[in-house]
Design a protein that fits this description.
This protein is of the alpha/beta class. It folds into three domains: 46 residues, no CATH class; 152 residues, Rossmann fold; 135 residues, Helicase, Ruva Protein, domain 3 (Orthogonal Bundle), CATH 1.10.8. Helix content is 39%, strand content 12%. It contains 15 helices and eleven strands. A hairpin with a 2-residue loop joins β1 and β2. α5 crosses α7. The radius of gyration is 25 Å and the shape is elongated. The N terminus and C terminus are likely disordered.
């Protein structure tokens, strides 16, 4: 994914290098943010997604787990003529081959042990809409020929049935595997690979688009706040820390971190100590000039460093070029409690 932000009310793709929600661009439907980003590097991807969305063309989404492939698939569906029809997901690694075949195409009663009733399957459930095949790279070889037939001829049979049925749907598939290598290893059919790979969109990992982290974190927090009795905000230092983490789990990991921090925070402000150790314990908690951070984050980091090296608030205020009252107000805005804030800096209370 890419970062997500509100404010885009229609599908548009325009160059954007500014780090503000108003400048986030991407795929949206009405007031619903579907797939937005601040990263200029993703503009070609969104442009291609915009062009392919109105068609029936099969789309293959590539990228690491948690990058937002499902979100992009939903965005393409919502921007297509099939938007009013179902968006149906099949998680390919979750089932044994026979059960996955049944999950996809359905079955008739008695076709295998446990088939006590007829089942229409996900293909029929997605009729007129979009069938999303998640982690397609793990699709068993036994099922691959039947998927190929569905893609080529739009026909299929339920397990244990002889009736050939016609399907009217669009297929979007996603994988975190290198399908070319899977083909070379004999685990994935070459003809199926080429039939799927009509249009491919590769979503870069979150660590390669640092400018998207803040908008995604704020969006996730807004969602989480809806279920919390006390609304939380992210301290500027937390945003700086989030932008320094490598995010091996991508957006999924970021969402989990924000949810955990929002639950554990004692006040209305989420601080670095509320983050998990792997995120909060970085090499340098302070952003640097030129980093993709806000001016407020830079000012806050500088203020914390000065406070750590001075003996009193008055001395810190003199170094910062502001009066002590202004320093107090900024400290209270950041932490809500001057004493608690100063206990982490070493600045004496007197002054």
């Amino acid at each position: 994914m890419t970062a997500i932000a509100k404010g885009v009310k229609s599908l548009r793709v325009t160059p954007s290098t500014q780090a503000s929600d108003a400048n986030a661009t991407g795929l949206a439907s009405g007031d619903t943010p579907l797939f937005l980003t601040r990263s200029p590097s993703l503009q070609p991807l969104l442009s291609l997604a915009e062009r392919v969305a109105p068609t029936r063309t099969t789309v293959l989404l590539l990228g690491e787990s948690g990058t937002g492939k499902t979100m992009l698939a939903r965005a393409i569906h919502r921007r297509s003529p099939r938007a009013a029809k179902p968006f149906v997901t099949v998680n390919c690694p979750c089932l044994q081959p026979q059960l996955l075949e049944s999950e996809l195409f359905g079955h008739v009663r008695g076709s295998f042990t446990g088939a006590v009733n007829d089942s229409q399957g996900k293909v029929a459930a997605a009729e007129g809409g979009t069938l999303f095949l998640d982690e397609l790279g793990e699709l068993p070889r036994e099922v691959q020929p039947k998927l190929l037939r569905l893609l080529q001829d739009n026909v299929y049979e339920r397990v244990g049935d002889t009736v050939t049925r016609t399907a009217d749907l669009r297929i979007i598939a996603a994988t975190n595997r290198d399908l070319k290598k899977e083909v070379e290893a004999g685990r994935f059919r070459e003809d199926l690979y080429y039939r799927l790979n009509v249009i491919s969109l590769e979503i870069p990992p979150l660590r390669n688009r640092v400018e998207d982290i803040e908008a995604a974190a704020e969006y996730f927090l807004e969602e989480i706040n809806a279920s919390l009795p006390q609304k939380r905000k992210l301290a500027p230092t937390v945003l700086a820390r989030l932008q320094q983490h490598s995010w091996p789990g991508n957006l999924r990991e970021l969402h989990n971190v924000i949810e955990r921090a929002a639950i554990l925070a004692e006040g209305d402000l989420i601080e670095c100590e509320d983050l998990p150790e792997l995120v909060s314990d970085g090499e340098d908690p302070c952003p640097q000039v030129g980093d993709f951070v806000t001016l407020e984050a830079l000012q806050t980091a500088h203020m914390r460093k000065v406070l750590a090296r001075t003996a009193t608030y008055r001395q810190a205020a003199e170094v910062l070029g502001i009066d002590k009252a202004t320093l107090y107000r900024r400290l209270k805005r950041l932490g809500g409690n001057v004493t608690a804030f100063s206990s982490t800096t070493g600045v004496a209370e007197a002054g």
